[in-house]
Design brief:
- The complex is a heterotrimer.
- Chain A contains 19 helices and twelve strands.
- Chain A is an alpha/beta fold.
- The longest helix of chain A is centred in the N-terminal third of the chain and has 27 residues.
- In chain A, about 45% of the residues lie in helices and about 15% in strands.
- In chain A, α2 links the parallel β1 and β2.
- Chain A folds into two domains: about 210 residues, 3-Layer(aba) Sandwich (D-Maltodextrin-Binding Protein, domain 2); about 200 residues, Periplasmic binding protein-like II (D-Maltodextrin-Binding Protein, domain 2).
- Helices cover about 75% and strands about 0% of the residues of chain B.
- Chain B has 14 helices and two strands, in the order ααββαααααααααααα.
- Chain B has a single domain, classed as MetI-like (MetI-like fold), CATH 1.10.3720.
- In chain B, α13 packs antiparallel against α14.
- Chain B has a two-stranded antiparallel sheet.
- By secondary structure, chain C is mainly α.
- In chain C, α5 packs across α9.
Amino acid sequence: MSEGARMHTLHKTSLILLLMASALLTTSFTGCGSGGRRVVTVRFWNGFTGPDGRTMLRLVKRFNQENPDVDVLMQRMDWATYYNKLFVAGLGGRAPEVFVLQTLAIPRFAKSGFVRGVDDLCAQPDGIDVHDIDANIWQGVAVAGKHYGAPLDIWPMGMYYNRRLFREAGIVDARGEPKPPTDRAEFLEALRKLTRPASGGKPDQWGFVFTNFESNVYSFMLQFGGEFFTPDDTRCIMNGPRNVAALQFCVDLIRKYKVAPPPENYDAWIGFRQGKIGMVFEGIYMLADLQKQQDLDFGGAPVPDVGGRRAVWAGSHNLCLRSDLQGPELRASWRFIKFLSDNSLDWAAGGQIPVRKSLRETPRFKGMAVQSAFAREIPYVVYLPRLPFIFEYQTEFNNAVEKALRGSATPQEALDTATANINKIMARERNAGSGGER
Amino acid sequence: MTRSRSLRRWSGYLYALPYLTLFGLFVVLPLLYGLRLSLFRWEMLSQLPPRFAGLGNYAEAVRDPYFWRSLVATFQFVALAVPLTVCLALLLAVGLKSLHGRRQAFYRAAYFTPTILTISVAGILWRWFYNSEFGLFNAYLGRFGIKVPWLTDTHWAMLSIVLMTLWWTVGGPMVVLLAGLQNIPPQYHEAAVLDGATGWKSFRYITLPLLRPVLLFVVVINVIGAFQVFGQTFMITRGGPEMSTRSLVQYIYETAFNNYRMGYAAALSWLLFLVIAVFSLAQFRLMKER
Amino acid sequence: MLTEDPQNHESKRHESKRAEGAGNPAGARRRPWLYEGLVALGALLFVFPLVLILITAFKPDSEIVHFQGLLPRATTLANFRAILGSPEEIPIARWFGNSLFISSAATLLVLTVDSLAAYAFARLDLPGKKWVFGAVVATMMVPGQILLVPVYLILNRLGWLDTPTALIVPAGAGAFGVFLLHQFFVSLPKELEEAAAIDGCSRWGIFWHILLPLSKPALATLGIFTFIGSWNDFLGPMVYLDSVDKYTLPVGIALFQTSYYAEYGLTLAASVLCTLPVIVAFLLFQRHIIQGIALSGLKE
């Protein structure tokens, strides 16, 4: 081999070695490691990516500082992979001590024996006062009479509205302040006033847009009085007339009244951020994103009652414990959970609503305008159906809604298909013996 | 054969042993594990153990409209992406062939650069390009009053994914084909010129046939890769709209990791392997015979 | 100025250029500037998106959402500061270190293990060699995602989940490297090895002193491939790693996308940081990478 080639090789070898050395250095240098004291380690998993995650990290840090005998390690990952990894970790004996479950996931994890009940812990002197939590939220974590998590927050879907567009359209109250609609008539009228085609350099403007099919349409269906399962929970009846009427109403908003853009060519949420939409229905968790849009003058209000019944979609994050926790780990974990619950106002600042009624009464919370507005809906929030196979249910529901809104199927057809598929899933679950019922 | 000679022959496997161990553990074993798993019903969230179901999972797959839908989406992708990628790569290779030295190296590198990007970066970028409201493409097209439903229309979505794939993956085949072209000795073309065949004729009757082995390789590798499309569709459209871009691999992934149905996911995986194997073999036969 | 001068008087060059022209559909010699122009335009289009990532990373989020032109109206370092400035929430240096460590280790493993195996299949007289090697090569047809679920379960049994080992060791099982090196070894002339054998050199000696040194280009190529492939791997780390501080760069960047929306500014800035090292490495080893791909295609 020529001298030059050998030098070249040496050069490359040393480069590789250098790379490896720096890799090792970086990993060890930035590695975290608490001291070797006798502390109880509590691993805390959740799906809080984005700004939520950063808020939660700050809370965790504070807890660790105030409680030097406990070391909480937070891990977060995308919600989509979170649930699976959580369960498989359980199978492999690697499940964390504390983890977050959204209310929709509680039935399936509770049924599989993964989660520890919290009723006894709440009853203790250092427990959480369950009367400080709204009854319907507390019911959300109940399976067969036992409660399986400490609700941390509630994120109802509410209405964000563009105040500037409201003023320009003249939808104001006596003082000239924008007046968000509260019932069907006001809603439709506002929609008509807010919708304008593109003209003279200004972009087109819409009264409403469907940002989140699932939460939006589910809420409408509830308001129309629709039902999803038979009272004995054995059959899905999602294609009932009231649900169809609700879905038809949604379709009409797009196709008949033409106050919402067709979803086939519209990035809904961005449209609102760009100031082209009058009203959207979205969860309180979108607040942080809106606040980044400094040129948007928006407000929050409860969703109008369009169908005759006050109801709105909501979800919650619940703090749960692994089922086999004992002794010091259990105590430390519970202390952490109680800390988060007591300090859920800090969590709320990131765009959530605390479930502790006492905290909602504080001036600090009342100062959070949008959160307070959305919190008015709490008495009538409704969670998703309590199902072990919730993800497949969501897929079917979302598919049906998407098809109907995009005009690929009539509401009746779309819901018929979804209902049939869900009944098939229920039959499959029954045959498998894991219980097709809820 | 003497015993010591036979021993010596077998001892040669010692060299391959480290690799074969890893291969056995992480390729063969999973394949067999997956095959066995596909014969069971195992819904991971019930507290029940897996139950033998024979070919039940495969039967369910055949009756599963979502399986067929994702297979169709995958086929659409393969049918669009592979011919376009290979043709573009060939075109570019031919174009680059007439350049030399530094210039050729520069352009070669330029076309290859997108390929070294990781999918999350490439995916985010193109999601931004394609956004209906503030995406780069519509921002400029908007000045002409055009608003293309890149990712929100069921027909456009797959095309958009294919376009992105072209950008992302054409570098590899282009380089291989360029090398193939450069490997053809100039005498062939000189002879053709003397016979009066130039331009297209020369390309068709001299270049292409001589390029066939390399071309075959490129096409087969691309088809195999295209059947496994997952990153682009998952990152850019999540399989929407209306599941029109949900590839089979994404369906397998969701069946396993969202719905926790491991046995069924394994069966779907084996069906995908079967499809790929059949196609690859068919291609080999087809292109080799001609 | 950019094109070949068709009236070059050197006859050989002229001839081969005519031959080139004959090989091209329309004869590049006739309008070389057109071809180069198109190629250049295409190259610009290809590289442009990368430049765009860089430019856009300096825009504030509200400007990204409200497209106002390619160049930032209000250049800001906010995105980069947000990423680099909060190591507890965004341990990007950690992710970088993880990626570096995992990719380097995987590369070393692959080079070691694959070269040994390729030597065995290429030069040693093994019983049943054809079948074993054929089976190995055939698995190149298996989509990686098929193995995802079973490998996950195997790694779980081994207790390797959520450790770098899960991303390093299985990388050594890929067939591509063995195939590539095998093709390369087979193409080397046997005389050197035969001479060495006559001189009493052992099989190991031949491998270490003769074959390996001659294979530096192929090894370098396989090494770069493996490194880049491991660096860019998304699915593996996403599924096999749980702890945020163990993430590799691609998965870490994905954390900026919540289920509901994407923080474009942060993601783009992180992407710049993630891609820069790869681009640098690529430019340094460009020749080898492209040679390597060409090799893999030709020795079919």
